[in-house]
Structures are given as C-alpha cells and as structure tokens.
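Students often ask why we bother encoding 3D structure as a string. The short answer is that it lets us treat folding as translation between two languages. Here is a chain of 127 residues written in the first language.
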Amino acid sequence: MNKLNVHEYDGKIEQLPITTILTKINISDTEEIKRCYDEIENIMKPKLKNESLRIWNILKNSIGSISNYDNSNQISVDSLMFIVRMYINDKDFQELLIQQLIEMQSGLCPQGRTTRLIQILIPMIEK
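And here it is in the second language, the structure alphabet:
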C-alpha cells in the first residue's frame, strides 16, 4: 500500500460507509472490548512478529485511552476493532492488517491508528 496521509480524513470520516456500522456497535463495555481484542489476537498471534506485535500490544494496552481516540473524527480504535473482528478470518485481510500495524510505527497518533484501520476496512465493507 502507498504511504497514507493519516490526516487526510480528519473531520471527514462521517462521509464514509464505515460510520453506518459504527452506529450499530455498542462499545461501552470495557470487558467486551477486551474480549474483542483477545479474539482477534488469538487468530493473529502466530502471524504477529516483531514490529507488528509491538504495535498490536500498544493498541491493546491503550484500550479506552485517549491514545486510541481520534478526536478529529470522533472515532476510536476500540470501536474499529469490532469491525476488524468481522473480517479477521479472511487471510488477505489478515495480511493487510499486519502491514498497517507495521505502518503505524510512522504514525501512532490517534488519527494514524484509526485511518490505517479504516483504510483496510472500507474495501471489506464495500465488497
């Protein structure tokens, strides 16, 4: 994938199809969020190596924190993980997720985290 300007979508996420799904997700239960991350991790753990594993752990350890909340778009990594979980059994999606975790090294701001996930989720949603 090409380098992404993670701030390109600041304030524009509501125009994307992902918002329809997000409005249906209730992410107020921290334990449910942790279970979501755990389910994804159980599938991805053998594939996560070095930098992708390091970034995954940063995201997981930031559950519910401001580090996982993109204020520009009013969206959280935690809520996006519920959508990630919907597609995590797709092998191609798994590879894209690993690539984006690695890319997050260059942009771990909240916008970088959410935009990189949205970038791989939109094509899945539009299938």
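Translate back mentally: The beta strands are 69-70, 75-76. Keep this in mind for the problem set.
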